[in-house]
Design a protein that fits this description.
The complex is a heterodimer of chains A (253) and B (243).
Chain A lengths: L31 E6 L11 E6 L1 H10 L4 E10 L7 E8 L3 E6 L8 H11 L7 E9 L12 E5 L22 E2 H12 L3 E9 L7 H7 L16 H11 L9
Parallel strand pairs in A: 2-5, 2-6, 6-9
Antiparallel strand pairs in A: 1-3, 3-4, 4-5, 7-9
Chain B lengths: L4 H7 L7 E5 L6 H12 L3 E5 L9 E4 L10 E3 L1 E5 L5 E6 L8 H15 L3 E9 L5 H4 L7 E5 L3 H4 L27 H10 L4 E8 L5 H16 L18
Parallel strand pairs in B: 1-6, 1-7, 7-9
Antiparallel strand pairs in B: 2-5, 3-4, 5-6, 8-9
Chain lengths: 253, 243
């Protein structure tokens, strides 16, 4: 309706809590479907480490740090409306029992758990022994006391002694939370009593995110248990980061 | 549904004497704030992260109730209990996945009936601004509407001024409870299944002091089922530091 009407309009009332006037009696259709492409990928006999990289910073780091891997499949979140683009989680594996999942573009939260269920069950004969999830957030979103470090971790109850050095890393402080795919992954691991750690890199939000510096923060992950066994050396990683982003020479020592 | 079969088995002997308290995702987060006060003040322990987590938007963080240094996780749906196992308290931190709402409601109702829970308390809220004028002018106590299911009178003998019919949110119905989330659907379903249920629905608006609304709700609940001494203050959880 356009133009002045001088009459009140009945508008829906909004709430920060969520959709507080939602219909619980009618089943709503899902707007996206989640599938594996190709449908029956070859499974690893066992998986010593599942590494999930979420967002551009984590994916940038992993592309610079990973050893040789083979593409296995994609998990595809596709809209039922054909015009909308699909979201993809790229799955790679190595012969040493390491599974890698790269999620560059944020998957709709409503489908995150479904994606994680497929990730945990479709590519290995048995659940991964350990899961490491890398993600990032702008420091302006850090709540409570200021972040003391540019990384923080959160772990599942069963993470304990599986991860050496985890106790020396800053723990995420209340009331900060993690959502989306990383949260779905940690929740799945907690519910299934699996060993998992989420590492968050806090980056300065300057309008153009400091992609390489934020990516480099993730190198602290090599201190966690045997994660370093699956990554190139720190100097090789720096060299690769430079090749990936030649526009940022001032960040390379 | 709220618990795995192993956790259910450990509670099955206690369930017929248990009071289940859960929040509705509703205006001002009042139900969730009220449950935070209960968990923080009543020395409840976490017994499970619920399988229902897969039906809500994912959310994790450090514990909302334990001081820094603890490695206990918070997830979107958690279940707490007291040592005597007379209370089962659910906290839900995030909204439902839109295409899983009906599944959650159906599963929750079937679970409550299957476990033979003695009585259910729902803590909720609704938009004050869409109520009848009589509610706009009511006292602070009357701003928390009380709904008792048909089977609820015997289970909650000290509740007065209660209503027995909840009307779902409709623009044209002056008795509707807009902003109350799952409240009406859950109440109607449990009423049909003869489950003893009390719903406390606080009339309020977003942006006002919803912590005070939550305190009003738990104070009224305490009058009904005596959770703590009246003169003991409700303890705010550490996750409220920014409020």
């Amino acid at each position: 309706m356009s133009g002045p009407t001088f009459f009140g309009e009945v508008l829906p009332l909004n709430s920060r809590a969520g959709d507080v006037d939602a219909d619980f009696e009618t089943e709503e259709p899902a707007n996206f479907s989640v599938s594996v492409d190709p449908e029956m990928p070859k499974k690893l006999d066992s998986c010593k480490l599942l590494l999930l990289a979420h967002g551009e910073h984590a994916c940038c780091y992993i592309k610079a740090a990973k050893m040789e891997t083979n593409h296995v499949a994609d998990i595809v979140v596709a809209s039922t409306f054909e015009s909308a683009g699909a979201y993809r989680l790229v799955i790679e594996s190595s012969s040493s029992g390491y599974l890698l999942a790269l999620c560059q573009r944020e998957i709709p939260s409503e489908y995150a758990y479904e994606v994680i269920e497929l990730l945990m069950t479709s590519f290995t004969a048995s659940p991964p022994e350990k899961c490491l999830i890398l993600c990032s957030k702008a420091t302006v979103l850090h709540r409570g006391e200021a972040a003391k470090s540019n990384i923080s971790i959160l772990s599942s109850t069963n993470a304990g002694s599986d991860w050496s050095s985890v106790t020396s890393m800053p723990y995420l402080t209340t009331p900060n939370t993690i959502d989306g795919l990383p949260a779905a992954a940690l929740t799945f691991c907690e519910l299934h009593k699996m060993s998992a750690v989420v590492m968050t890199s806090w980056y300065q939000s300057t309008g153009h995110s400091d992609l390489v510096q934020a990516a480099r923060s993730f190198d602290a992950a090599r201190k966690l248990s045997t994660v370093g066994d699956y990554l190139l050396t720190s100097s090789a990683v720096s060299e690769n980061l430079a090749k990936l982003h030649p526009k940022n020479p001032q960040y390379f020592a | 549904m709220l618990l795995t079969s192993d956790d259910e088995a450990s509670l099955s002997n206690y369930a017929p004497n248990m009071t289940l308290i859960l929040p509705a995702i509703s205006v001002g987060n009042v139900g969730q704030l009220a449950v935070d006060l209960l968990i923080s003040s009543l020395d409840l322990e976490l017994i499970a992260h619920s399988p229902a987590n897969k039906l809500t938007l994912p959310l994790v963080g450090p514990s909302a109730y334990i001081q820094p240094g603890s490695k206990q996780l918070s997830t979107a749906v958690e279940v707490y209990s007291n040592k005597e196992k007379t209370l089962l308290v659910v906290q839900q931190r995030s909204d439902f996945i839109s295409h899983a709402r009906k599944e959650f409601l159906d599963s929750l109702v079937e679970w409550i009936v299957k476990m033979k829970i003695k009585r259910v308390v729902l803590l909720s809220s609704a938009f004050l601004s869409s109520q009848l004028d009589s509610f706009l002018q009511c006292s602070e106590v009357e701003k928390t509407r009380r709904f008792l299911s048909k089977a609820g009178s015997a289970a909650f003998p000290s509740v007065d001024n209660f209503e027995q019919q909840m009307v779902s949110s409709r623009f044209d119905d002056p008795k509707s409870l807009r902003g109350a989330g799952i409240s009406t659907s859950l109440f109607q379903r449990l009423d049909e299944r003869n489950v003893a249920m009390l719903a406390l629905v606080r009339l309020c608006n977003e942006g006002e002091d919803n912590v005070a609304d939550a305190v009003a709700v738990v104070n009224l609940l305490n009058d009904v089922i005596s959770l703590k001494p009246v003169d003991k203050e409700w303890k705010r959880p550490i996750s409220w530091m920014d409020l």
